[in-house]
Specification:
alpha/beta; OB fold (Dihydrolipoamide Acetyltransferase, E2P); Rossmann fold; 2 domains; five-stranded mixed β-barrel; 18 strands
Length: about 425
């Protein structure tokens, strides 16, 4: 049984309804009114909708009328024209024509939610039982994933899960799921999940009906990260600008103040803590920096360079943050590191940072992001001084511009007083330097 119901569909944005309709191979869904589209989706899921052309009905309750990629590293994509019959699009693609949106019909546009739906879903012959698979979920950087039937090693029997199914069922790597599969279509290498029936032994629809992440009660961070590093910058951050599980942290400063290097050093320290799930999103960075992260032993969860559009940068940041949200909702402690928020639309930047929270009685999601200036709403701001960094005076932390909300919850009253005294001394030094100048 599908995890979608009328109430969930009515609360979904129109873009999400279009994505679901595309997955279900509903023709002409863009021409339908919202209420009509919801009715058609429900009918298709329940198996009551038949094609007017007299063709065999598609697998109606499949939420994944999409094509798995040729290998496990391929990204989800969507055709440029959703309403044109698949065969016509294929013929036009072979001729090298272009679609209405200017995209060559033989090419695929990147879409982190939808997958190709050119061909109708396979029909299960009457009386033939669905092939049910069970395995462990392994998510890919593009948001989709695979059910590994013989974990942890990949095999040709693995089953593809679309990004929309992953998001709808709030799957995380390591979940054990069951559900029916459909055989691979032409040009596909892997079978695809029709739906997710159970997640870790619990009915998928029960999990879907649980509390939304944004509705979970949040409290101020009260458990400081103990970094325990000898690096002067990391040590100063731990004691003078501390942050804890569920903190919203921005590492700010002018160009060449050392924001990326500070974030990478934080990643190396936090990656060694066994009770943390670490995710790294590199959005709009220098191409060389992607290799630097991997060389340091931290493989980015997702990465695009500074030449990428603001929309694409926002997409990968949202995708990585969404993974962290799912882990936190399950009671785990997740940390998302983002370099940088500067290329994102301001609303997306605030949304990424706002996702962090310390869930009362549950897990936590910590977000640490670099930016030229604070975004707003941070619980910790770590300001770096470009003059100190350029003259190799470390730690290059500007205590006057840095700050922590409710530091006593993280380091106790004595620690909070020590931080306040250090800030006063830093302000006196700045005032003295200004007077001498």
């Amino acid at each position: 049984m599908s995890v979608l119901d009328r109430a969930a569909l009515e609360q979904s944005p129109l873009a999400d309804l279009h994505a679901i309709a595309s997955e279900l191979s509903i023709d002409g869904y863009r021409r339908l009114r919202r209420s009509e589209l919801i009715d058609v989706i429900l009918e298709r899921q329940s198996g009551e909708l038949e094609r007017q052309s007299g063709e065999p009905r598609a697998a109606a309750d499949s939420p994944a009328a999409d094509s798995p990629a040729a290998d496990s590293s391929a990204a989800d994509s969507a055709p440029a024209d959703d309403e044109e019959p698949g065969e016509a699009r294929r013929r036009r693609g072979r001729r090298g024509g272009r679609g209405r949106g200017g995209t060559r019909a033989g090419e695929l546009e990147h879409d982190p939610v939808r997958s190709p739906a050119e061909e109708p879903a396979e029909v299960t012959p009457a009386g033939q039982a669905e092939q049910v698979v069970e395995g462990i979920v392994e998510l890919l950087p593009n948001g989709s994933g695979f059910v590994r039937v013989d974990p942890p090693d990949p095999s040709d029997d693995d089953v593809y899960i679309s990004a929309a199914q992953v998001k709808r069922c709030e799957l995380v790597s390591g979940d054990r799921v069951t559900g029916p599969r459909r055989p691979p279509r032409r040009s596909e290498r892997f079978a695809s999940m029709i739906r997710i029936d159970t997640i870790n032994g619990q009915a998928a629809e029960e999990i879907a009906e649980g509390a939304r992440f944004d509705d979970l009660p949040a409290i101020f961070p009260n458990e400081r990260f103990r970094l325990g590093a000898e690096d002067p910058t990391i040590k100063a951050i731990e004691w003078l600008t501390p942050f804890g599980r569920g903190s919203r942290v921005s590492v700010v400063g002018l160009a060449r103040a050392g924001k990326t290097e500070a974030l990478r050093r934080l990643a190396l320290v936090m990656a060694g803590q066994p009770d943390l799930e670490l995710f790294v999103a590199l959005a709009g960075v220098r191409p060389e920096e992607i290799g630097d992260w991997s060389a340091a032993g931290i493989v980015p969860t997702a990465a695009v360079t500074l030449g990428a559009s603001a929309d694409l940068q926002g997409q990968i940041v949202e995708r990585v943050v969404d993974q962290g949200r799912r882990f936190a909702a399950r009671g785990a402690n997740a940390v998302v590191l983002i370099d940088t928020l500067d290329g994102l639309h301001p609303l997306l930047a605030r949304r990424a940072l706002a996702a962090a929270r310390n869930i009362d009685g549950g897990g936590s999601l910590t977000v640490v992001a670099t930016a030229a200036a604070p975004v707003g709403g941070e619980t910790t701001v770590i300001a770096l001084d470009v003059t100190m960094a350029s003259t190799a005076r470390f730690p290059a932390i500007d205590l006057v511009r840095s700050g922590v909300v409710k530091p006593e919850l993280l380091v106790g009253d004595a620690g909070a007083e020590a931080i306040a005294r250090a800030r006063v001394e830093a302000m006196e030094v700045v005032a003295t330097s200004a007077g001498e100048a």
